[in-house]
UniProtKB/TrEMBL annotation, chains A, B:
Pfam families: TetR_C_6, TetR_N. Residues 8-68 form the HTH tetR-type domain. It comes from the Bacteria. This is TetR/AcrR family transcriptional regulator. The keyword Repressor applies. Residues 31-50 bind DNA. Keywords: DNA-binding, Repressor, Transcription, Transcription regulation.
Length: 205, 205
């Protein structure tokens, strides 16, 4: 294997070891020593791949973002009807299975941690808010959004709903399960979209 | 001052010192040593008031809950029109000033921390979800809720909106300011309530 690729692969393995340590011990347990042990490396070898603790943490978090982005791109290229596309993307952002709930848990732990580390990593701007603005604009372009809607506030409301559901899925996965998340998101999207004249269409085909 | 009251007052002072330490250093900095120093006590004196670190943390968090509950009770006794009462209570839960944003920050840090401490403190059930169920039921009793609403999902959706806004107010207080939170909440409450004009039209077509 070329050396460059091997280096990047090893960095990803260390990032995944970091996630496991954070999940088990919280950010307060995510020391270089614990991460090296989990990755099966010496402390010196770890330093070869990441010269500082913060560099490692930022890399591990960017990898979570990339995974979410890849899942969203997979939906976008599916060419579903507009409202279906929006629903599927929203359902991809809110964690609904064990793997994505764990990702979210790592993400929240890191976000709270990063509050105390100025200039470390801008967890506020994780791209989800601008994503919500794009979805609202997309619904509007497709003439699906209610005509009197305040698009600015609708994006804020959708963003709050999505992150609130994500938070609750993490804290209380038994109640806030996949089915319940789906119903809440569908109910929300329906409420901001124009009411279909489906009944009329069905009566007068 | 009677000894019992003095004891309780001192415990509250220690809890407030704990909040300050968490805000400045995060949960990973909330050691007994740091908290004792912030409270101006010896480690031995601190142990007199709280025998374990977890006992102190749980007490400090319950005090945050009590402060929120007291603010909500103050609104409930004001005897405003139903929809106004609901709006005011929701605006009281989402932090909109420096003091309440700091409370929320401590609360989130603690919630993430408590995920790794089984049976420590049930941060999932902080009373906000059942509060949302009550508000939806109250709007329904006052015939303000849309008649075809799924009350169960509406409570979940309102809960997600409120906690999502709270999270964003903490992470990005410049964008998610008081005015913006108010507009999002008002827009949401209006969207789940009956439209008065339409009601009249339906009655007198």
């Amino acid at each position: 294997m070329p050396k460059q690729i091997d280096h990047e692969k090893r960095r990803k393995q260390i990032a995944e070891a970091t996630w496991r340590v954070i999940l088990e011990r919280g950010m307060e347990g995510a020391s270089a020593r614990n991460i090296a042990k989990e990755a099966g490396l010496s402390l010196g070898a770890l330093r070869h791949y990441f010269s500082t603790q913060d560099e490692l943490l930022v890399f591990a978090m960017k990898l979570v973002q990339e995974k979410v982005r890849a899942r969203i791109n997979n939906i976008a290229i599916k060419d579903l009807p507009p409202k279906e596309t929006v629903l599927h993307i929203l359902l991809e952002i809110v964690p609904t299975n064990e793997e994505t709930i764990r990702e979210m848990e790592v993400w929240f732990a890191f976000t709270v941690y990063a509050k105390h580390k100025k200039d470390m990593f801008d967890a506020n701007h994780d791209g989800i808010y601008s994503g919500m603005q794009n979805l609202i604009a997309y619904l509007d372009e497709c003439s699906l959004l209610k005509q009197n809607a305040d698009k600015d506030i609708e994006a804020e409301r959708l963003y709050a709903l999505i992150d609130g559901l994500a938070l609750h899925a993490m804290l209380d996965p038994v109640r806030v399960n996949k089915d319940r998340i789906k119903r809440a998101i569908m109910q929300h999207v329906e409420s901001i979209c124009t009411e279909k004249i489906r009944e009329t269409e069905e009566r007068n085909p």
